[in-house]
Amino acid sequence: MTEKEREELEKEYQIWEEKLKDLPQCSLPLFNTISDIPLKIVYTPLDIKDFDYLRDLGFPGEYPFTRGIRHTMYRGRIWTMRQFSGFGTAEDTNKRFKFLLAHGETGLSVAFDYPTLLGKDSDDPMAKGEVGVCGVAVSSLKDMEILFDGIPLDQVSTSMTINGPAAIIWAFYLITAEKQGVPFYKLRGTIQNDILKEYIAQKSYIFPPEPSLRIIVDIMEFASKEVPKWNTISISGYHIREAGSTAVQELAFTLMDGFTYVEEGIKRGLDVDTFAPRLSFFFNSHLDFFEEIAKFRAARRIWAREMKNRYGAKKKESLLLRFHTQTAGCSLTAQQPENNIIRTAYQALAAVLGGTQSLHTNSMDEAWALPSEKAVLIALRTQQILAYETGVVNVIDPLGGSYYVEYLTNKLEEEAYRYFEKIEKMGGMVQAIKAGFPQREIAEAAYRYQREIEEKKRIIVGVNEFILEDEKLEIPLLRIDPEVERRQVERLQKLRKERDNIVCEKRLKELKMAAKSNENLMYPILECARAYCTLGEITNALKEVFGEYKEEAFF
Amino acid sequence: MKKKIKILIAKPGLDGHDRGAKVVARGLRDAGFEVIYTGLHQTPEMIVNTAIQEDVDMIGISILSGAHMTIFPEVLRLLKEKGATDIHVFGGGIIPDEDKEKLYQLGVGKLFDPGTKISEIVEYINNYFKDKS
Amino acid sequence: MTISEYLKKFEEKDIRALSKIITIVEEGLEGSEEILDYISKKTGKAYRIGFTGPQGSGKSTLIAKLTKRLLKRIKGIGIIACDPSSPFSRGALLGDRIRMSELFLEEEVFIRSMATRGSLNGLAYKTKEVADILDAFGKELIIIETIGASQVDVEISNLVDTTVVVFVPESGDGIQILKAGLTEIGDIFVINKSDRMGADVLYYELKNLIEMSYQNSKWKPPVVLTQALNNQGIEELEKSIFEHYNYLKENNLLQEKRKNMLKRELANSFEEEILKIYWQDERIRRRFDEIFLEILNKKISFSEGIKKLLKEVKND
């Protein structure tokens, strides 16, 4: 646009805007995004005045990757359809995996139960009532072997949502593959392994920050040598968002966590290009459709820029923000659960228009229970219809160039940098977390959101408007058999009798020694896994050396 | 008549999802109650000890992990054991209707679903005390 | 239950009774006076320590770690943690307890959270009474934590034998501390979160301040560096507390201190009651309003008005 054209446009716009004053105001409550970014009624070229195509967008697969990280995106390869699953015993989940694979899922994603997430065996006293209820119980290598029985690990990629005990669970997986005859270097997958967001949001931490970060870098180092196709961290915003944050906070805190991991790797003396290509991300896809798309685009651009300029990454792969998306669990309602199918569909669309590499769609019954077979099938079909029937895969970044979306992408980026500055002034993300800064921001946003709903400034269909009186729940719900806990406990006791306990003792001792020194812990952990030491035993050994993290609750 | 109603908001078990518990705690504070929040990873024993020491009028338990059929009965049992059955127990989270029925039979108060407004909880608490006096 | 039944159970060391009695006194319910009369005969055995300092300094965590240590040598610890009531809703979020969860299963530890309910000195109105109740119950040590609003709440030093003032490296420079009068009430100073930047600078500033202010004093408050979350420096804090205790005992200051505390409390309560009596007197209230109008309309001067009011009181 020339200066003259711009002035002309400015004038015309103001004439148009004047006309709005005489028109009745709309009756919808809020005109902000969920992140409280105020929105104009329409966007024009005036809102992206300094737009420079090559600088701000670039081409797909080229710096700054705003439009997408690959040249061909979905024409070359549809995103991975990866449904987060797990419940009961390893056998139960193995069945669900096979069910999903048979119906067209293209990647596996494992949900572990709470005891496992916290490094506790199924017979730990604190595990009572929680075994297999929120995910699959894995207490040893044996469980992992059963979990993947009949699933060739050189042919699937597996994502595992595990953080505190990530190194240990990963070791179980690696040895399971080894026993299948698949060498480490062939394995593809991800471990979430993002401890910083645990302190901020998901709260399944075990050790304090410093030893946790040490383990993460050990994993990064080990993977770069032995498991080069493996994503060592899934730097997550999903949980931050679920805890109540805004899109801006999700974007800013996730990227700051990412930068922190990069800095930790560099501190260890690793060349950034050896580990950065295997850092991946995990975002939420929430209700505000365009804000989410803008968020994904801003994330790619910020990451590429910072990796290049601040951390001096030279390889292209180090600049790519590859991400998995899950539709927003916190947006699902218990009331009129079938409506959740629609919510999930919109959120899935946003993720795809935002260029995600991998996607999980929630099931409609998840405000009540873990997904039933029927519900998870619909969720999977949601992705397949999106991929094969709507045509959105035909063109890359179709919303690129939209005045609104480009404005919003810029705005989210701007707001994110404001947070970066604040956190840097606090001494970095770890210090900010210790001071409770992200936690408080999130609690504040969560409370504000709830107030908006209660004051009907924000409408949630079926909850504060369009309610069905005397609703009766009419969908089948998945129930976990209480026998699961008993069976797991039995199996564990059997394992402890049948293994060579002397070797176990020895390996655990060696692990403790290694933990006290600077050794890479993956090697001794693998040895413990091979000897069938249990998850709890290995975690406790590390706890003895590293201590346990106790959170200071922040409101 | 007491001037202040005291409520304990508890997060039992291994579940780390505290968004709801924190929002409710704040909401109850804004409604004029005195609220004590236990923090995460509490055992039923810790919860009951706290409830007794603080002499709370009600305990609100937040559970989303499915362990409710273990936790609620245990809390009730401990309250009985320590002679504190006048402390009323209610809760919220992810609890299927048939389980709710079983828990109501045991003497648990109202169990709130996801999407419940804070004002509903406040009303519930106020009505409970109005009926009592 | 009747009051005497509660007191009987209290004698038997029943926790529920203790808790209920605290509530009755805190709320000023019927039976409160009878309880306090009973309690007053049984206090005096417990040692009292106060913790004050700005919000976020980590007082609660520090108290928890200290208590865990002290349990090895002290039987029975009571903790009173004060938090502010919201001036708008009058409700309160009592969150100190969260940081003490490692003590929840300790039989010997009793933790009670108290909301300020309008009190402005960093403590709940009935903090002292509740401390007395814990004393009478048999707790050997009572720890009181102020809300720690802006700088420090000074009133705490009138309620306890040892006052611990907790800072964090971001607490600001020495001049601020001097201005706030903190050096006058602290028997022990703690710099918590001492791994943060600025800890050593603050340490030296505090030490200098103390040198200057306590030149002629027999007790020079120590400055202890701690990292409560990592359990660092707790041993030193414990040591300092025992040193202060011994100092008070050896110099017969403990009795002196408590004598003064009692006198002050008596004076305060007396003043409160007098005020109540006069403000509740209808005739005096009426005369007050009349005299106020006279002053307002410039019929008499302000000081003449005061004299008139005093005459009313004297005529009673």
TrEMBL record, chain A:
Its keywords, alphabetically, are:
Isomerase
Residues forming coiled coils: none
Q: Where are the transmembrane segments?
A: none
Q: What's one GO MF term for it? A: methylmalonyl-CoA mutase activity
Q: Keyword Magnesium on this protein? A: no
The protein's matches in InterPro entries, at most eight in alphabetical order, are given as: Cbl-dep_enz_cat, MeMalonylCoA_mutase_a/b_cat, MMCoA_mutase_a_cat
Annotated Methylmalonyl-CoA mutase alpha/beta chain catalytic domain ranges read 33-548
Which NCBIfam families does the record match to this protein? Answer: acid_CoA_mut_N (TIGR00641)
The entry's protein name is Methylmalonyl-CoA mutase
Q: Which organism is it from?
A: candidate division WOR-3 bacterium
From TrEMBL, chain B:
> Which Gene3D superfamilies does the entry mention?
Cobalamin-binding domain
Instruction: List the GO molecular function terms.
Output: cobalamin binding; isomerase activity; metal ion binding
Keyword Isomerase on this protein? Answer: yes
> Which branch of life, at top level?
Bacteria
Task: Spell out the Pfam families in the cross-references.
Answer: B12-binding
Cofactor dependence is on: adenosylcob(III)alamin
Alphabetic keyword roster: Cobalamin, Cobalt, Isomerase, Metal-binding
Taking every annotated instance into account, which residue ranges of this chain make up the domain B12-binding? 4-132
Keyword Acetylation (UniProt): no
Q: Could you tell me what this protein is called?
A: Cobalamin B12-binding domain-containing protein
Originating species: candidate division WOR-3 bacterium
